[in-house]
Hints:
Layout: H1 6-12, H2 16-35, H3 44-52, H4 57-67, E1 71-75, H5 82-87, E2 90-94, H6 103-109, H7 116-126, H8 131-135, E3 138-142, H9 146-155, E4 162-165, H10 173-194, H11 200-223, H12 233-242, H13 248-267, E5 279-284, H14 293-300, E6 304-309, H15 314-317, H16 328-339, H17 351-363, E7 368-374, H18 378-393, E8 398-403, H19 410-424
Parallel strand pairs: 1-2, 1-3, 3-4, 5-6, 5-7, 7-8
Helix pairs in contact: 3-12, 6-7, 10-16, 11-13, 14-19
Bound molecules: Double cubane cluster.
Amino acid sequence: MAEDYRDMWTKLGLNLEAHDALLQILGQAYADIYVSQKERPEGMAYFDFVMSEVHGLRIKELLEEKASGRKIIGSYCVFVPEEIALAANATLVGLCSGADFALEEVERLLPRNTCALIKSSFGFKLGKVCPFLEAADMIVGENTCDGKKKAYETLGHLVNNLYVMDLPQMKSQLGRNLLKAEFIRFKEAAEQLTGTPVTAESLRQAIDTVNAKRAALHRLSSLRHADPSPISGLDALLINQVSFYDNPARFTESVNTMCDELQQRISDQHGAFPAQAPRILISGCPQAVPNWKLPALVEKSGAVIVGEESCVGERGTRNLVDNSNTTVDEMIEALVDRYFQVDCAIFTPNRERIDHILEMQKAYKADGVIHYGLQFCQPYLMESIPVEKALEEQGIPCLRLETDYSMEDAGQLETRIQAFIEQLQ
Ligand code: BJ8
């Protein structure tokens, strides 16, 4: 890192030795997986820089925000509305849960058969290696899957200010009412944390900021409809991952600059992969940073990932909030309208998700779909079966994978992925 941040990390209470080890592994993985790619757009330089400074400059910025009176809220789920946090003078950051850490310690607190994402969130806390987590003034958990819901009961003893948001499980009127009540309760909690009331003006501005960020990501997605795709799936995933912790306005500008370049690439027929490369849609569990295992294996096998039906992808970003309202209450309604459409597998029934996968397959002209399920993730593994059936009915090849964050199964996965890709050619 350009500057020495060790003082800052010590003050945050990080375990410097463990943190050094983590950065070392991450730096190496990033060089091997990302920097080694060919035909990368120049605009990726910004995201490379953000990654290289993710525990440095970005944390320094957040601490400066805190010093000026702003608060930091950390979250694990795309149901937590960034708009409300921003309007209450707080910055929302995603707490990445994409790598194994301190597994032995984690498995003293959680059953072994807990998904890697939940274990990772504990590992980062127990190993004291996440400066975002340590810088956060409030951490928001949510009642989504049973694993997360129960794990937060234990996490509450490990972190200072855990706030748990209840979430509906059905897309009914009662479910919608619950989401609205919970958004209002979250607004009050954020206001109490920051001492800043949410006003119609601050909420409207926050809606505009987050809409602009999502619109830039929609633009990026639509450019990936092109054949050849102007950007690799790895790079597009990285941009989606960065969206969870970068400054929203700066991120939006950088994505739009990148999209200008991609537009030019499309006119020049300049792909990240050759035009005949098989096109893959990934669907399933979120791939939080630095979980790059699956896309690295797919793209190494010669296929290009053109879209992600995932919370770190289109499930998390699609739909904007109606910004034509004037009162806080109307704006909360508009937020509920938007967020209630997120088709997480915790909902039952969840036909919308299958329809969205079918829509995405068509729009992105995907030759096949890989369903990515984390081991022990009941909601997504259960849904992978009807997803596969719906795709098969349309004659679309589907490969269902179940994995975790370890590299132990990489060889086996690669063989299955290669066989699947061959079948598409
Ligand atoms: S809206 S997908 S971000 S809950 S992988 S922890 S489901 S056992 S992450 Fe998620 Fe919000 Fe839904 Fe999206 Fe549980 Fe499955 Fe683990 Fe998961």
